[in-house]
Amino acid sequence: GKNAPNDHTEKHGGAGGDYVKAVTFGGLDGIGTTFAIIAAAAGANEDWKTVLIFGFANVLADGFSMGFGEFIGGSAERDFALRERAREEWEVENCFDVEVEEMIELYESKGLTKEDAVTMVSIISKDPKIFVDFMMIEELELLVDVDDKWGPLKQGTVMFLSFVAFGIIPVLAYLGGEGQGTDYVFGISVALTGVSLLLLGALKGYLTSMNMLISALLMLLSGAISGGVSYGVGVLVDFIVNV
User: Fold this and answer.
1) What is the pTM of this model?
2) CA 27 to chain centre
3) 3-state secondary structure of 15
4) Please, is 183 exposed, middle or buried when counting C-beta atoms within 10 Å of its C-beta (0-12, 13-18, 19+)?
5) N- to C-terminal Cα separation, the chain
6) Is residue 148's pLDDT more than 90?
7) Taking a C-beta distance cutoff of 8 angstroms, is the pair 163, 29 a contact?
8) For residues 107 and 121, is the Cβ–Cβ distance under 8 A?
9) Are 136 and 84 in contact (CB under 8 A)?
10) How does DSSP assign 131-167, residue by residue?
11) Burial of 102 by CB count in 10 Å (0-12 exposed, 13-18 middle, 19+ buried)?
């Protein structure tokens, strides 16, 4: 009602924050690559031992590779942002008027009037740190949190853990010491993989403000195509080597 201003709740797309990419892509990659190995083994009529050996090897090795890559990439991005920030801080301290004029021109190019641009810049430039913050975002378009020195390590760890946590799911069906080719154990693995992809897709949809059902179905489709191709390769290679 008109007397209840808090009835409306905004849903912000960044609910999952900085780690949505690592969780989503780490989890999707983990499930996708591990199930691809299982599907290829099923196509080649391999048994549960082969699945466990290559499944666990893939989860740990590929998970580490993904996590380390995320860490290296995040570190390089943060280092670049720190260098750019240091340069902007020097320019604000030594060429203040030039930087003010640059920001006024930037806001004018975005559609503000000269008067509004001058007013805005005069406000944000009162505090040098705030002024540099605005320059990093508006001028350089760098949205890296340089204050969090552990950020890249956290990103890499989240990527690794999500890869392992989701990647191990398709293998679980084979821990009972049974399974060969496309038997019921493979069916259980397919079911576990499908449910996990749907849940991960729905989670991704929620965190990114995308339709949860569409996001879930897209994840499932991606996994089905990847698994289907791998199964076909397994059948083909097995046929060729046994001719």
Assistant:
1) 0.74
2) 9
3) coil
4) middle
5) 76
6) no
7) yes
8) yes
9) yes
10) HHHHIIIIIS-----TT-TTHHHHHHHHHHHHHHHHH
11) middle
In contact, 61 and 169? CB cutoff 8 Å: no
Residue type (1 letter), 36:
A
- The rounded distance, in Å, linking the Cα atoms of 207 and 12 is 9
**Contacts with 134 (C-beta within 8 Å, 6 or more apart), sequence order:** 103, 124
What burial class does residue 45 get, using C-beta atoms within 10 Å of its C-beta: 0-12 exposed, 13-18 middle, 19+ buried? middle
**pLDDT, tens only, 7-47:** 544 444 443 456 777 777 788 889 989 999 999 999 999 99
Token pair, residue 26, equals 């780490």
Longest dimension (CA), the chain: 80
Q: Could you tell me if 223 and 198 are in contact, meaning their C-beta atoms sit under 8 angstroms apart?
A: no
C-alpha distances in angstroms, 88 versus 55, 85, 101, 134, 151? Answer: 49, 5, 14, 11, 22
The number of helices, as runs of H, and strands, as runs of E, in the chain is 8, 0
